[in-house]
Amino acid sequence: MTHLYLIGIGSGNPEHLTIQAINAMNKAEVIFIPTKGDAKSDLAEVRREICARYVTRSDMRYVEYAVPARRVIDRSYGQSVDDWHAELCEAYELLFGTNLSADGTGAFLVWGDPGLYDSTMRIIERVKSRGRTALDYTVIPGITSVQALTASHRIPLNLIGKPVQITTGRRLKECFPDAIETAVVMLDGEQAFSKIDDPDAYIYWGAYVGTASEILISGRLVDIKDNILQAREQARARHGWIMDIYLLRKGEDFDE
Ligand SMILES: C[S@@+](CC[C@H](N)C(=O)[O-])C[C@H]1O[C@@H](n2cnc3c(N)ncnc32)[C@H](O)[C@@H]1O
After folding, report:
1. Which of 113, 144, 145 to mutate to test the pocket of ligand 1 (most atoms within 8 A of CB)?
2. How far is the C-alpha of 181 from the C-alpha of 178, rounded, in Å?
3. Among 18, 37, 83, 193, which is least packed, fewest CB within 10 Å?
4. Residue 108 — φ and ψ, nearest 5°?
5. Residue 59 belongs to domain spanning
């Protein structure tokens, strides 16, 4: 049976890799590296650098594959994601059939942690349930961008004894500032923070967190949101792409 390692590689800093991740990489015969076009070539480059640093077996094979863009026209968000997973499922079946023997071992280097806003596990489950490739898999945890953000800002994720909501820009208004004191926002293409006018809200924003290009801005949201919008736009223009994340907070430890 084919065995796959879905390895969390952290959020862009090659030093985020755990020893467990490095050992799993070296158990694989093939490492699959996703490419997402020229604009995001830096992300494939980080994976190549991780391989160059940590792979010790001389017979390792690397297979790069293009990730199809998610189609969004004429379908709901849910349908769009489902169609994309179906497309990737077929692509993976082909990838495994072409590059792995029936009892071969492969590895995917998954950004951050495979359990947080990532589809790899779901797509591999789909491949498994279709039954055309006999496979099993192991998940290796990684440092998420949430942890990278809070570490870089030197802040605790939660207020003492309080919950945290992790959400997307699209759904932020459902929870912050009215229902929760701490929200972490990922995958925000609309800069949802800019629509919040609560004078008591603080923001801890970061782009390319954990990497050499890291940008951090923090302060009272209403005072600095324009600075963040400007910094974000400039960074995106400079790099050709951006990955940003932020934590919004209202209140303090020991507030009741
Ligand atoms: C598809 S999700 C992947 C999350 C990843 N699995 C994790 O554990 O962090 C991509 C989102 O993660 C966040 N992200 C990932 N890496 C980041 C980084 N180095 N700096 C800032 N945000 C990052 C951004 O919000 C981005 O839109």
Report:
1. 145
2. 8
3. 37
4. -110, 135
5. 2-143
Strand order across the 61-66 sheet: 61-66, 30-35, 105-110, 2-8, 135-140
**Count of beta carbons in the 10 Å neighbourhood of residue 186:** 19
Q: Is the dihedral of CA 166, 11, 129, 75 positive or negative?
A: positive
Q: Is 111 in the pocket of ligand 1 (CB under 6 A)?
A: yes
pLDDT tens digits, one per residue of 18-57: 999 999 999 999 999 988 766 667 788 889 999 999 999 9
Q: How far apart are CA 128 and CA 166, in angstroms?
A: 29
Residue 256 lies in a domain: no
Same domain, 83 and 162: no
Specify the CATH number for the domain of residue 74: 3.40.1010.10
